[in-house]
Design a protein that fits this description.
alpha+beta; hpI Integrase, Chain A
Length: 397
């Protein structure tokens, strides 16, 4: 099968030639250097072909997705060439970016967690649609996109810029496949067209004495705050979860038998199920919370809103209430605290990173097994809970 590296290294010859990928998808290399995707198939026993566009306007993943769509319609007895023509004709009446975006999103919305999709849609409604939503795609030029993205860049919303630029490019590349435009107007925007992202370091504490003091402050919250918030706040240092992942924990994700919290993919930033081994301390505490029967659904139910959990903002407010300033610690800072100290204590970085649900940038390792290093992670999580308890106990003494 093809890879991006292989495709980039394909050189033109004196004659056109092709390299197969899979399922009759192939890339054709023309003498002038163009690389063109084509899907060959048989309809009513007659050989036929449909073109999918040029590489890199149409990337490897997009070509495979398009090919799979044509294979699907072929399995239903529809000629892919006729299907493509019909699809293109259906778009003739409305070629605005907003309408084409909506069609693209309707086909691909299952690729993301619902929360992620809603967040990105909101960004488009605020930063993209007001400027190019009503524009016919063939009239949108690279300079138009540069101006749109620089408005976002000037606001310092670097991550939002990255996400919206990626989705915008995918919409335009699909328009290239459909023959509505010749190229993706975001493709050639220079990498230095935008400000460099400033490193974001969540405020945290790392010195053992500071950690011990913090743990006792968290314990003190039990005297002034609600039970649900107090328990979530005191469990936060033990679990390494992001604030929203922690407060929205559901009882169906808690496996008391195997001593695991199985955070569902839809709630994870990377949209993959994440396993959190429960230390003895965490297990006992969750059993205690469960015995009170506060909610059949949420571990930390809202005391004021039926059928919902407490929210991440509540944890932040709780920290401020007990005197922990934003310069000292954020709710994300519990993760940095654990990462820093566990690295200093000699645990393997790969094990720590996996427990933090960080994804290795290496493409091969992205397809990791969610249970990777699970035995080491169990040992590490137990050690960490014991370590936190020892800090708190010694401080109390």
């Amino acid at each position: 099968m093809l890879t991006d590296a292989k495709i980039k290294n394909l050189k033109p010859g004196e004659k056109i030639y092709s390299i197969a990928d899979s399922n009759c998808l192939a890339i054709y290399i023309l003498p002038n250097g163009r690389k063109n995707w084509r899907y060959r198939y048989r309809y009513n026993k007659t050989p036929s072909m449909v073109t999918l566009g040029d590489y890199p306007n149409v990337g490897l993943k997009e070509a495979r997705d398009e090919m799979n769509e044509y294979r699907d319609v072929l399995s239903k007895g529809i000629n892919p060439s006729a299907y493509k023509k019909t699809l293109k004709l259906n778009l003739q009446g409305d070629k605005t970016f907003k309408s084409l975006f909506d069609r693209w999103f309707a086909r691909h919305k299952g690729d993301w967690a619902e929360r992620t999709a809603k967040k990105n849609i909101a960004a488009f409604e605020k930063y993209i649609f007001p400027y190019i939503g009503d524009r016919v795609v063939s009239t949108i030029k690279p300079l138009d996109m540069l101006e749109v993205f620089r408005r976002m860049d000037d606001k310092g919303i670097h991550q939002v810029l990255i996400k919206t630029r990626g989705w915008t490019s995918r919409v335009f590349r699909e328009c290239v496949v459909l023959g509505l435009i010749q190229f993706d107007p975001t493709r050639d925007l220079p990498s230095d067209a935008f400000k460099k992202k400033k490193s974001e370091h969540y405020a945290t504490l790392t010195h053992p004495d500071d950690v011990a003091s913090l743990l006792n402050l968290l314990e003190n919250y039990r005297e002034v705050g609600t039970y649900q918030v107090a328990e979530a706040l005191n469990l936060a240092p033990h679990l390494f979860l992001r604030p929203s992942e922690l407060v929205e924990t559901e009882w169906r994700e808690v496996d008391f038998t195997n001593k695991l919290i199985r955070v569902s993919a839809k709630r994870m930033k990377m949209s993959k199920e994440h396993l959190v081994p429960m230390s003895k301390q965490v297990l006992l505490k969750l059993k205690e919370i469960h015995s009170f029967g506060l909610s059949d659904e949420y571990v930390f139910p809202s005391p004021t809103k039926n059928e919902s959990s407490i929210n991440a903002e509540t944890l932040r407010a709780a920290l401020r209430r007990i005197g922990v300033t934003k310069e000292q610690l954020t709710t994300h800072g519990f993760r940095s605290l654990a990462s820093t100290r566990l690295n200093e204590l000699g645990f393997r970085e790969a094990v720590i990173e996996r427990q933090l649900s960080h994804i290795d940038s290496n493409q091969v390792r992205r397809a990791y097994n969610h249970a990777e290093y699970l035995d080491e992670r169990r040992d590490m999580m137990q050690y960490w809970s014991d370590y936190l308890d020892s800090l708190k106990d010694n401080w109390s003494n």
